[in-house]
Write a structure and sequence with these properties.
Elements (H helix, E strand, L loop, with lengths): L6 H9 L3 E6 L2 H14 L3 E5 L4 E2 L4 H7 L3 E5 L3 E2 L1 H9 L4 E4 L15 E4 L11 H9 L5 H10 L7 H7 L10 H7 L1 H12 L4 H13 L3 H5 L6 H26 L4 E7 L5 H11 L4 E8 L2 E7 L3 H8 L5 E6 L2 E7 L3 H12 L1
Parallel strand pairs: 1-2, 1-4, 3-5, 4-6, 6-7, 8-9
Antiparallel strand pairs: 9-10, 10-12, 11-12
Helix pairs in contact: 2-5, 2-6, 5-6, 6-9, 8-9, 9-12, 14-15
Bound molecules: manganese (II) ion.
Length: 346
């Protein structure tokens, strides 16, 4: 069932006994989880590693944790097998998203409560913004801001926040500036790199994050944050090296910046974002090659449309937002994809 307002979700959170929160493995997803979990003070969180959807392997979590409600945050797809299993176990799903609306949503009238601003003709906002509207806990506003900025969205409460925390966030309406020139933006990077860790480490991080009361506590190194910062520094070292290479390519590029790299760490989304901040008038494509598969992160004006067109004669998937999207294809098709992009962007 498509929900028309958020009050229903708040009511569920008020009565829920043992919720299970699945969230997209990025800072918008993470912030959404933290906001809901801090509000209801109950339940476990699981960062979803499967892409693009929540896949059926996560059914084992339902048996393990036996939730009375399932929340799925910031994920555009839930595999049918998962939905059917949840229905069979009488575990209703509250699904909050801001990507495309799944066609089959109306087949699950009684087992899924679906909220998407796009489904009711509202402006698209990050899921963390929606979760903040549900919970309205002022002391967690900084968490909502982290989630919003991570999705390149400056929320309406940002101005007031900047008055209270001018040292962390001198106001700017430009999400790129907010991300790369402020302390609060640095926290987005810290969290997004800290999420790139083994599941057991991420579980520990979630526990610690739930105990952190304000952005200063997260910025400094203390008992709760030491492992988060350690992981950040590890990833950031590799990231800075890669970014330097990407910038060299960018300097020589025309309208399209196409950067390809291989390796075990996938931070193509972060590289693409930072390149987009540095070169806002270009189209960015960052391809992370792993064996015979490639994930490409794309940024730029109308880039989703361009991406889907570039994929039209290639076996691959694309999706995301108008100006920020992703594509998954075979390594053997990457050259063709690159050529298609060049043709379309000319
Ligand atoms: Mn999101």
């Amino acid at each position: 069932m498509i929900l028309k307002n958020l009050e229903r979700i708040r009511e569920v959170l008020e009565k829920v006994q043992n919720p299970l929160f699945f969230f997209d493995n990025d800072v918008d997803g993470l912030a959404s989880f933290l906001l809901l979990r801090k509000f209801c003070q109950k339940g476990k969180g699981v960062a979803i590693k499967s892409y693009p959807g929540l896949n059926v392997s996560y059914v084992r979590k339902l048996y393990e944790l036996n939730p009375d409600y399932i929340f799925v945050l910031d994920k555009p797809i839930i595999e049918k097998g998962f939905i059917e299993k949840a229905k069979e176990l009488v575990m209703p799903i509250v699904w909050i998203d801001h990507h495309g609306i799944p066609k089959e949503i109306n087949n699950y009238e009684d087992s899924i409560f679906y909220f998407n601003p796009k489904a009711i003709g509202m402006k698209e906002t990050p899921v963390s913004f929606i979760c903040y509207q549900i919970t309205r806990q002022k002391e967690n506003e900084w968490i909502a801001l982290l989630g919003c900025l991570a999705d390149w969205y400056v929320p309406d409460f940002a101005k007031e926040f900047s008055k209270a925390f001018p040292d962390l966030f001198p106001f700017t309406p430009d999400p790129a500036k907010a991300l790369y020139e402020t302390e609060i933006g640095k926290l987005v990077k810290v969290l997004s790199f800290a999420l790139m860790d083994r599941t057991t480490k991420v579980v520990k991080m979630l526990k610690n994050l739930l105990l952190i009361k304000n952005p200063y506590e997260l910025l400094e190194e203390n008992k709760l944050t030491v492992s988060i910062h350690k992981r950040f520094k590890q990833i950031n070292r590799k990231y800075e090296k890669m970014l330097k290479k990407a910038k060299k390519i960018a300097e020589k590029s025309g309208k399209l910046i196409f950067f390809k790299y291989g390796g075990e760490t996938s931070f193509s989304a972060q590289i693409a974002n930072e390149l987009f901040y540095l070169y806002p008038n270009k189209i960015i494509a960052v391809a992370c090659v792993r064996g015979n598969k490639v994930n490409v992160s794309l940024r730029g004006k109308n880039v989703l449309k361009i991406t889907l067109e570039a994929l039209s004669n290639i076996e691959g998937k694309g999706g995301g937002h108008e100006d920020a999207c992703g594509a998954a294809l075979k390594t053997s098709d990457l050259q063709k994809f690159h050529e298609n992009l060049l043709m379309l962007i000319k």
